[in-house]
Description:
Elements: H1 6-10, H2 32-52, H3 59-68, H4 73-76, H5 81-84, H6 88-105, H7 111-126, H8 130-152, H9 159-171, H10 175-184
Amino acid sequence: MTKASPYEHFLDRSLTHVMRFSSIPQQFQESVAEHSFYVAYFTSIVIYFLKKRKERVDEARALKIALIHDMEEKFSGDILTPFKYYSQELYHAIRKVNRETIPLAFEYLPASLAKDFIAFWKEDADRVTKEAQIVKVADKLSLLSKCKEEITLGNAFFKPIYERELKALDELEWPWWQKIKDEILPQ
């Protein structure tokens, strides 16, 4: 049996077909691929504000994390938040399965590149580094922008999500975020 070439990886557009918020009526569906673009874009904006404050950030690392942060959804789909966090046991089971299957997302890439991507994905999941935390903030900003778009179009289903996530962002206590949040969040 011969191993497929990296070309196979270039042909995989599965994240364009995984839709987010599958249980909520939407004016416009958003794919995981679209979401990942905005997370990467918003990551670069957050980094701009951090650099203005002379905060050290590995921008390339953060952008790589942003691009692959939801790669497991290629297999799992966008698991609904209330379900995923229903219990600690379920949440940990989902994380375990994600950690076991994430290598499959990069199986056609050279081993060293796949190893790097898996490490970036795990870094995001652990949220210990500043770069992973920045991606989490960008992830929430992407969610807020999707919610705001839906609310503006009259879709009240997204209002409680918007309010919950805006509050969560406002309450984040990461020291670097405290330095810039007032420049980003509404006053």
